[in-house]
Amino acid sequence: MVRVLLRSLKAVGSGIRTGWLLLGITLVLIIVTEAALRLALETKARLMPTEVWTQADMYRNVEWARDFFREHHVAERTTWAPYVHWEHPPLQGRYINMDRNGLRATWNPPPQDVAGDPPPVRVFTFGGSTMWGWGVRDHYTIASHLGKLLHAKGHRAEVMNYGKIAYVSTQDVIALLRCIQRGEIPDIALFYHGINEVLASYEHGKVGYPLRSRFRCVEPDRGPWAQGQEFLSGNFWGFRRFVAGLRRRIRPWPLRDTGPDESRPTFPVNDETARQMVRVYEANLAAIESLGRRYGFEPLFYWQPVLFSKRHRSPHEQTIVERVSMHEKKFDDIYRRVRRSEALNSHPRFHDISDLFDDSKEPYYLDGWHLSEPGNRLIAAAMVDDVIELIEQRRTAVVGPVPVAQASRLPFAGAHLQARPVCRSRFIWFCR
What we know:
Helix content: 40-55%
CATH topology of the largest domain: Rossmann fold
Order of helices and strands: HHEEEHHEHEHHHHEHHHEHHHH
CATH class of the largest domain: Alpha Beta
Mean pLDDT: 80
Number of domains: 2
Distance between the termini: 103 Å
Radius of gyration: 26 Å
CATH superfamily of the largest domain: SGNH hydrolase
CATH architecture of the largest domain: 3-Layer(aba) Sandwich
Oligomer: single chain
Low-confidence stretches: 218-222, 252-265, 398-432
Number of strands: 7
Strand content: 5-15%
Structural class: alpha/beta
Number of helices: 16
């Protein structure tokens, strides 16, 4: 009996030892394979960048391009944030930097502490990846170019870039509200939208949803399976990218709207979607204006250009149009409705600059919507006079010095001073 028990224990021990050996060998193989995949993918990214926009006219024969692409790939990552779904984590790089609040570094003139000088005008810019600065360096985003132009025209301004990748106008309304809650109130709030409004509307077949929200619907179920997927995705990105690439080769995304697809759902273009999208955008403008009256800042709104309407295209731009041709009718329908909107066209603060590059022969597009550094400068140049006009209007709103008691009787002024007491001097200066 004892011998049988000993043989049984020996067999169990041998099985456990064999199991641990197999598990150890499997883990070693997984780690080695993951390391090999990461090395191969990184080498491929260095030698043969696959992103379409890396082949743009702007980056031909540019020495820093490859280092920039690697840094840009890291900068695209986002973390979860309440109300707005995602934000950017802090990043310190050579070409792309974001502070602890996830705000992209922006060019601003050196601070000058001269007695008697008014404080700089605070300009907050909101938008999606085009405002954030997709494909360009920190000092060449729209916000940075705007700061440079204001400085060149003799205006002291502090421009802050609140752009976030893939944000739609509703997310920016919430982002602005969150700024106000923290006591961060601008003098001028500038909004740059259009492209993500279209893409989000046709990603879901309905309006009012942010991009990527189809991935959020599974998050309430945070069971072991979901947590395991999150762990594997975060720690074994080599396997994830390899499997994703293999899946695209086996079952590629449709190049045109041929119907819904599991990996990339598309929905038919219809007039009702376009009408509702414009209505949602108009409602967001009204909400921002209401906040501006309440807290004393001036809003500006811009509808952005897209490659489809550009008449003179470079070979790269023509290639892009052919690759994203499935979106052309969607943009045509909604952009046409925006141009016909009486509410928008009669709005003194709304500016449709979607035709800015239509007649240009220079290549400005990195892809269907993101612009090169010179393109961003032209966008900023189209905005700067409007910003300066608002600065001058605020300066001359009231003639002569205004006592605090009188300032509190101005429409919404008292509430503004209470909401941001640290900016009391700025408000009174603007009222001179």
